[in-house]
Amino acid sequence: MSNLLDNIKESFDSLSKRQKLIADFITNHYDKAAYMTASKLGETVGVSESTVVRFAVEVGYDGYPELQKAMQELIRDKLTSVQRIGVASDRLETGDILSSVLNQDIKLIKKTIEENNSDSFEKAVEYILNARKIYIYAVRSSFALARFLGYYLELIFGNVKVIETTSKNEIYEQLFRTGEHDVMIGISFPRYSSTTVEAMEFAEQQGAKTIAITDSMTAPVTKIADCTLVAKSDMASVVDSLVAPLSLINALIVATVSKKRDEVTHTFRQLEDIWDRYGIYVKNGDNNTDEPN
Predict the structure, then answer these.
(1) Which of 215, 238, 80 is nearest to 138 (CA)?
(2) Per-residue pLDDT for 198 more than 50?
(3) In this predicted structure, which of 190-199, 248-257, 268-277, 282-291 has the lowest mean pLDDT?
(4) What does CATH list as the number for 116-276?
(5) Could you count the other beta carbons within 10 Å of the beta carbon of residue 185?
(6) Which of 9, 18, 202, 229 is the most buried (most CB within 10 A)?
(7) Separation between Cα atoms, residue 179 and residue 186, nearest integer Å
(8) What is the domain partition of the chain in residue ranges?
(9) Residue 183: what are its φ and ψ, rounded to 5°?
(10) What is the distance of C-alpha 124 from the center of its chain?
């Protein structure tokens, strides 16, 4: 997918005059073209829809949907935050942003269901269940996912380390004790962080099993991973939708609980006693507050 512009450049001389119009438009405005239908792209450039479809095949794709997917992969990895705002504004229905965003998230969850491999999921669960220690690393917006996963796995297993630094020196210091009995979970979504890749590489060199949670099998972190779980994300203005990744992480947590049901039940009975003893949660019907009368 990342070779889209190279594919166009290599094929350019063999393209027809009308196809070259499409090539020029995509090269200069792939951020706009990525979410256009074949018909809309043809109308914008001044060619027929069939010419757009033939162009997709000419530059190395099975059809327009595959070409469009390549453009979308490209913009998610390359666009600046300012460019993202412009693309999102073109895509969203300004009159009903709530419905537009929620419907996009529903589509992403459906794509995640379609593209996930149950064998990889079960493999990831086994790695986690058998780990001496579980390390989790993510940066920027993906860090929220790491904290969520780490919170629940720590309650369940008590052997979890969420690495909360972007300093390479500190990352290596926190990972240098990893070994063949440990698991490293790297969470990485566009725009991909090089730090996450480097942390995964270090853990892999130390002998740890590695699990990648990312949006595509072509994402950089997959090259290091022993096991990859795919959750689709997409742009929603300056932010990325992480609904599907969070849903996948929920499934991962639930799967580990189901495999260790008796132990987890015992752990949470103890936790419930502690929470109740120290009034951690408000009880039903309890209207008391800490505020003075």
Answers:
(1) 215
(2) yes
(3) 282-291
(4) 3.40.50.10490
(5) 33
(6) 229
(7) 16
(8) 4-109, 116-276
(9) -130, 135
(10) 16
The whole-number pLDDT of residue 72 equals: 80
> Counting beta carbons within 10 angstroms of the beta carbon of residue 230, is it exposed (0 to 12), middle (13 to 18) or buried (19 or more)?
buried
Tens of pLDDT, residues 258-270 = 998 888 899 889 9
pLDDT digits (tens, 9 = 90+) for 91-105: 555 557 788 788 888
Enter the tokens of residue 216. Answer: 């595509």
Report pLDDT for 235: 59
Q: Which residues contact 214 (CB under 8 A, 6 or more apart)?
A: 187, 188, 189, 221, 222, 228, 229, 230, 231
To the nearest 10°, report the CA torsion of 161, 164, 167, 170: -30
Determine the topology of domain 4-109 in CATH. Arc Repressor Mutant, subunit A (1.10.10)
Phi, psi values for residue 149, rounded to 5°: -60, -45
